[in-house]
């Protein structure tokens, strides 16, 4: 069971989605506790403290289960870790599913990973923010069940400097007057553009993502064009696009008259459904074949398979897919547009998009958009299985199931992205095919 943030020396303010005010770990009532099936990183300070513990049986459990890494760099930076087996709970949990470390020593003795999860602390270069990883079922439920859950507000946090959380950080634009990269220079503005597109009432999450994709493709092309022009002219260092060029692109995409036609423009893009079906199914099946997946994800995939009649001829599966999408999922999402919007807004905040520079803009965006495409694909499968009984609980389950496999399995997204790359689908031009 997780505790609220600890008593601390001072209060700090963070910008957080509204659902964070209500979030509390539900502990042993959790449908899929976070204390299982992944490696829990232990920082050096916490590891050294565990070495001094003499209280049994805790001391023996710590000796047995906390392993120091000879080379932290080879262990994703973790100084030590508690290794958990797939689908088995954390060995530090007692018979009541309560953490022995926390019970014996207090919450102060938890590692940063255990203490922070599912909270994600971000800094967008201007200020501190907080959201949650939606791989936590309770956070996903709160973030998706209320249309206003992603409205932003100030949240007062208790802050203990000794337990400073890991921060997902974007470079500070105020100290980057000499920043040569256009996207890094204006990252907060570009982030607010994407946020605003997703909040437009007349665009669905999928339409906003595709429209955003067209916009980011133009912004990325500014960098490529500047580099080419410069190389041609001087044969030396590449040039950088100017503010005026960026302003022109933003103006073109964000003018009220263009925005009012955005849904029609996006819906006019060709969407070969067979390609969508094959790309997303192929990527998922390859991951399952090569890496398995957690029990909850395998259960989700089983239901998707049943819903889509996988195993029958492709034409049968495809017809079933298209019928479930048009008859069940689309009408449902039209009535509950906030579901995919809230997931996406949360993912953008957690990733601090755009975090890197012009050259990485497309890949960063595709990583987010492909997650939404996968979730939507599984939703079609669940919609096919449930029919009219399909509901918000199915969306919550698909979201935390996918988020948990992506965020807790470092091989999931690279595997999916590689599969899409091999099929030439990892380009902003094909976003419509994946999402609409
Ligand atoms: S997944 Fe969320 S609700 Fe469940 S035990 Fe972990 S923090 Fe608590």
Your description of this structure?
The chain has 436 residues and is mainly alpha-helical. The protein folds into two domains: 160 residues, no CATH class; 257 residues, no CATH class. The chain is built from 20 helices and eight strands. The strands form three sheets. The chain has a three-stranded antiparallel beta sheet. A three-stranded mixed beta sheet has the order 6-5-8, with helices on one face. A two-stranded antiparallel ribbon has the order 1-7. Strand 5 and strand 6 form a beta hairpin. Helix 6 crosses helix 18, helix 8 packs antiparallel against helix 16 and helix 15 crosses helix 17. The longest helix is centred in the middle third of the chain and has 30 residues. It is globular, with a radius of gyration of 23 Å. It binds iron/sulfur cluster. Iron/sulfur cluster binds next to helix 6.
